[in-house]
Write a structure and sequence with these properties.
The protein has about 425 residues and is an alpha/beta fold. The chain is built from 13 helices and twelve strands. The strands form three sheets. The chain has a seven-stranded mixed sheet with strand order 3-2-1-4-5-12-11, sandwiched between helices. A three-stranded antiparallel sheet has the order 6-7-10, with helices on one face. A two-stranded antiparallel sheet has the order 8-9. Helix 6 links the parallel strand 2 and strand 3. Helix 4 runs parallel beside helix 5, helix 11 crosses helix 12 and helix 12 packs across helix 13.
Length: about 425
């Protein structure tokens, strides 16, 4: 059986023995086997990729860095005051640390700085830059993937821990993944911890496309470098000249996407498997979600953070947001009460499944936050009525196949 017969419609042949030697390879082959081929975003950041990203930040079209530096320049004293005295600073994905130097210089009696990065060469450069700027500040470099659980228990003692996560990196994660990441930051911060988070705000599509497809072609080189890395580290045979960079804005999901588009019909080998690319077919390499401040407040709250501060540049392109670690919550009795009330009101006191109860409770929480919408696909007005929220929750539960009391004749629930 040929490789072409083994790989059809994005389905790869069985994993090769090489997977045992390269843990990333199984994930890469799995991602290339999807109907929409994709590659792990973290693989963009090898030594050359990290260097190219630093050059992207200096381009005329990439507004993020300029807007954030403008905020740091104008509001640095207030930001340092929010961080407080005696903080130990943790920076996941530290990169070159240029923004961090400004913050560390303004802090009152910072106890130590722990840059965290997956790339040892980037970590070394960051450490040297901070050491030259602040020679008396203790440094605790951590070589780790911050998207995965990492050991933070061994960090030195400080009055409090401050997580500094600038840039728009949080937008690279799907909202559920971003919530999980912020939850890990909450664990690392501990009681009384603080978070300063960079958030790229929603704006017109043309501005976003220019930022992610700059006129100098640096972003294109950054994206294509991913294929060169796979060739070098995993023995792939991508012809980088046969792919081109593509930036697409998804209006419904409020995100800009980076893709690599095949210029022609071709086959590529990696990890003992071969994958077919039709002309025009793409590999999704990165997403960057754009938020409204209120949306990020809600997402961070679900991860255990309370919003305290908001700093924006004058053009409202970008925000730094200050959060404080929320106390650990007791079991949510409000949800149980909502479940009981919904059961009595919509089913005459008859019990229905836990799945339906959870869905109804979710709808009622969204009503309280003002995010529950009526109408098909949630495109109607904001729901204010408790009765209507219960009805929407039951309707959602039915679509999910949960156990729900039957509707009364003539419509509505009993």
């Amino acid at each position: 059986m040929s490789d072409e017969e083994l790989v059809r419609g994005g389905t790869a042949s069985a994993p090769a023995v090489e997977f045992l030697e390269h843990p990333d390879l199984a994930e890469i082959v799995g991602d290339l086997s999807r109907p929409q081929k994709r590659l792990p975003t973290r693989l963009l950041y090898d030594e050359r990729g990290s260097h190219l990203f630093e050059r992207i930040c200096e381009t005329r079209d990439y507004y993020v860095t300029r807007a954030e530096l403008e905020i740091l320049s104008r509001d640095l004293d207030d930001i340092a005051g929010f961080a407080g005295a005696g903080a130990g600073v943790i920076e996941p994905g530290a990169g070159c640390g240029c923004k961090t130097r400004e913050l560390l210089s303004a802090l009152e009696d910072p106890r130590w700085y722990a840059p965290l990065d997956i790339d040892p060469s980037v970590l070394w450069r960051c450490r040297e830059a901070i050491r030259q700027a602040l020679p008396h500040l203790p440094l605790v470099p951590v070589c780790a993937d911050f998207t995965q659980p990492w050991c933070h228990a061994g960090l030195p003692v400080a009055e409090r821990r401050l997580l500094f996560f600038p840039g728009s990196t949080v937008g690279n994660f799907e909202p559920v993944q971003a919530q999980r990441l912020l939850g890990r930051f909450r664990d690392a911060a501990g009681p009384g911890g603080r978070l300063i988070l960079g958030v790229d705000l929603r704006k017109n599509a043309a501005t976003l496309r220019r930022a992610y497809d700059d006129g100098e072609g640096i972003t294109a080189s950054f994206n294509l470098n991913l294929l060169a890395r796979l060739n070098r580290e995993h023995g792939a045979d991508f012809d980088t000249a046969a792919f081109e960079h593509l930036a697409v804005y998804d209006k419904a999901l409020h995100r800009i996407e980076m893709h690599l588009r095949s210029r022609r019909d071709q086959w590529v080998r990696i990890g003992g498997c071969r994958f077919h690319f039709a002309a025009g077919e793409t590999i999704h390499t990165e997403s960057s979600h754009k938020y409204l401040p209120g949306g990020m407040v809600a997402l961070a709250a679900a991860a255990g953070w309370q919003a305290q501060k908001l700093w924006m540049d004058p053009q409202r392109r970008f925000a730094l947001m200050g959060f404080e670690a929320a106390p650990r919550k007791q079991p949510n009795t409000e949800v149980k009460e909502d479940n009981m009330a919904a059961t009595k009101k919509s089913s005459g006191g008859r019990r229905y499944g836990k799945g339906a109860a959870r869905t109804v409770a979710s709808a009622m929480r969204r009503r309280k936050r003002g995010t529950l919408k009526s109408g098909p696909g949630g495109k109607g007005g904001t729901v204010r009525s408790r009765k209507q929220a219960i009805a929407i929750g039951l309707s959602e539960a039915r679509r999910k196949g949960a156990k729900v009391p039957p509707k009364k004749a003539g419509g509505g629930s009993k």
